[in-house]
Design a protein that fits this description.
single chain, 512 residues, alpha/beta, Leucine-rich repeat, LRR (right-handed beta-alpha superhelix), 2 domains, 15-stranded parallel beta sheet, elongated
Length: 512
């Protein structure tokens, strides 16, 4: 049949069961586009030998086994711009074919070995390079980061070592850089700040060190910053720009050695996490025509690969670090959040009532910290909350019930000796069962004024005399809040609040 189609230019048999008979010689010298993706073929079609004008070749999602034959290296030598062989069984060294005209090279999910050949530098017009999920070794070629055309550089899940090249050019078009799951080390190159079009930066699961890359906060198009499972350390200071990370939707810095307080001012400016636009962007995905962005995330307690990243997907993961101090209430403004993970840190204080405003939240993990107080009843009203992990803290009181909370099991609350009620076996006694009205968000704000001074001093004066309370209030104003006093007083504040206000009014309503 093919012998009568010598003038055929486009041939598309994709998603069919095709049998290749290489014992019969077909001649299709004018063939320009060939699509045999998902056809269950097991070898390269030999009729490609004479396809000297080939421009587009898609052999992806098949069972092609072994090394790329030498004769295939010259196919479309001066014309081939699209080559896709991903998801096959290719082995051996990376094929040293001609790259002169290539714009798209997709060879992910094979078993290629050896180094990325220096001939790749000849592909000066290359736009998308996906060599992920192979067994490639060696270093990242410096010529790749100097490219002025490359938009996608995906080298994840290989065995690349050494440092990331430091010479990202100022006039580049990088949109996605994914070097996840290699053996890269050393600090991040500051020239990454030259990637003004960057939307996805995934450098997780390497050995990269240094401090938080605050110098990336000026990348206005950055949607994904994933540096999980590295050796970053130190505090995350204040932003250096007026509006840091304005379009960031996924921030994953888990499994590092960060410490100090949570970065309140960064949370304040995460605008894309504040705006809820689900109805507008729910069906949109990150990526482009020939390449879809994907990402490994911890979602609902499971490590999951997002094959496609929905633009509405928003998550923060600070787990497995050494953050300390209280969780800022301002996080309650991030109403687009789907997931929030602060587990395995040294966080103290209360679960902010403002977390009840996170109406899109699907999982909340605050386990393995030192949180105190009661579980806010406001969390019951989060409609999509499917996973809640509060175990291994110092929480007390009656576990809220109703709605999604009725679906959580013991694992959500274990190792909180002060908690009682279902689903735990420990029942609440009469004192614990007699619950005071829950605090409102306005009352929560009143308990923590701007200067750290409020009803704490008055509550102390109530028991020990107004003069002593005024004195302690003055000392707290001057030298700060002793943490043991704050914790002790806050446990009783919601019960004594009205009584304290009346007491303060009898003494002139003074707070100092």
């Amino acid at each position: 049949m093919f012998s009568k189609l010598k003038n055929l230019q486009n041939l598309d048999f994709s998603n069919n069961l095709v049998s290749i008979n290489n014992n019969v010689t077909y001649t299709l010298p004018n063939l320009q586009q060939l699509n045999l993706s998902s056809c269950n073929i097991s070898e390269f079609p030999i009729f490609l030998r004479v396809a000297t004008n080939l421009q587009y070749l898609d052999l992806s999602n098949n069972n092609i086994y072994g090394q790329v034959p030498r004769w295939l290296e010259d196919v479309g030598k001066d014309s081939l711009y699209f080559l896709d062989r991903h998801d096959n069984l290719l082995q051996g060294p990376f094929p040293t074919q001609s790259f002169l005209s290539l714009r798209y090279l997709l060879v992910s999910n094979n078993k290629l070995t050896g180094e990325i050949p220096s001939l790749i530098c000849n592909a000066t017009y290359l736009e998308v390079l996906d060599l992920s999920h192979n067994n490639l070794s060696g270093m990242v070629p410096k010529c790749l980061v100097r490219s002025k055309y490359l938009s996608v550089l995906d080298l994840r899940t290989n065995s690349l070592h050494g440092t990331i090249p430091t010479t990202f050019s100022k006039e580049n078009y990088f949109r996605n850089i994914n070097l996840n799951d290699n053996q890269l080390e050393g600090p991040l190159p500051r020239s990454l700040a030259n990637c003004r079009n960057l939307e996805v930066l995934d450098l997780g699961s390497n050995k990269i060190n240094g401090t938080f890359p605050y110098w990336l906060e000026g990348l206005l198009n950055l949607h994904v910053l994933a540096i999980r499972s590295n050796k970053f350390q130190g505090r995350i200071g204040n932003p250096k720009t007026k509006s840091p990370f304005p379009n960031l939707r996924i921030l994953d810095i888990s499994n590092n050695e960060f410490n100090g307080p949570l970065p309140i001012k960064y949370f304040k400016y995460l605008k894309a996490m504040t705006n809820v636009e689900e109805g507008k962007v729910a069906l949109q995905y990150m990526g482009e025509t020939h390449y879809q962005d994907s990402l490994n995330v911890t979602m609902k307690g499971l490590n999951i690969k997002l094959v496609r990243i929905q633009t509405v997907f928003t998550t923060i993961d600070f787990s497995n670090n050494n953050f300390r101090g209280e969780m800022p209430k301002i996080i309650g403004r991030l109403k687009s959040l789907k997931g929030l993970n602060f587990s395995h840190n040294n966080l103290t204080g209360y679960i902010p009532l403002s977390f009840g405003n996170l109406n899109n939240l699907e999982w909340l993990d605050l386990s393995f910290n030192k949180l105190i107080g009661e579980i806010p009843k406001q969390l019951v009203d989060i409609p999509w909350l499917a996973v809640l992990k509060l175990s291994h803290n110092q929480l007390i009181g009656h576990i809220p019930s109703g709605k999604q909370f009725d679906t959580f099991d013991n694992d959500s609350y274990i190792e909180n000796l002060g908690l009682c009620g279902l689903p735990l076996s420990r029942t609440c006694n009469s004192l614990e069962a007699k619950k005071s009205p829950p605090l409102t968000l306005q009352q929560e704000d009143n308990l923590e004024p701007e200067y750290g001074f409020g009803w704490q001093a008055v509550s102390m004066g109530y028991g020990c005399g107004v003069i002593f309370g005024m004195l302690m209030g003055y000392l707290m104003f001057k030298i700060g809040k002793p943490q043991w006093i704050v914790r002790m007083v806050k446990l009783e504040q919601h019960i004594m609040l009205k009584r304290l206000k009346k007491s303060a009014q009898r003494h002139g309503g003074r707070k100092n």
